[in-house]
Amino acid sequence: MQTLTPLLLALADLTAAEPRAAAQATADILRAAASKHRFAPAPRSVLDDAITAAALGANALPCAGLVAAGAVFLPWQASPAAALQPGHLAASKAVVTLVSPEGPIHAADLRFGLFYQAPGVYYPLHAHEAAETYTLLAGTAPWQAGETRRVLGPGDSIYHPPQMPHAMRAGPEGFLAMWRWSGDIGFDSYRMLPDPEGAGL
Ligand SMILES: [Fe+2]
Prior knowledge:
Blueprint: H1 5-16, H2 21-34, H3 48-55, H4 64-69, E1 93-100, E2 105-106, E3 110-117, E4 122-127, E5 131-139, E6 141-145, E7 148-152, E8 157-160, E9 166-169, E10 175-182, E11 191-192
Parallel strand pairs: 1-2
Antiparallel strand pairs: 1-3, 3-10, 4-9, 4-11, 5-8, 5-10, 6-7, 6-9
Helix pairs in contact: 1-2
This protein binds fe (ii) ion (FE2).
């Protein structure tokens, strides 16, 4: 029987490697939910095949394969922020929320999930009050965070303190990541920033 248990445990281990209290709390919630939470089969997303290809590609962490293995239970959706992004294409980014005040795994003050961005797609400069960490599971992504520019690959993490402007472009394989929010996790503060040159990414 397919379950998300192996994926949730692997994501908990990766999350626990981040030396922040909110990351430890998120890892604890994932571990507690791993064996007891029952996920319903999810509708297919138009990006399912692309996500599976990235997850099973050569440039991926082993645990990315668990994303592909658990695909039937992962309700990929358009990003809630997508409508705010200039030039957004519906089939270019997708998000799964696994932990949030609204569920499916409940936490009053944390959010955690997966994110996929299709090859070459740009996520414009933006900021929000929530503290955020992304960890890439597959693919590569040139990334701007404040004044820092890096190319992230599988296993790399980046932390955005509250209100730090950030932007990212997916490399040629697209990228698959896990993300977590803590602090003020409402969406009210989410805003796009002037980004006439696409942050140069
Ligand atoms: Fe963000």
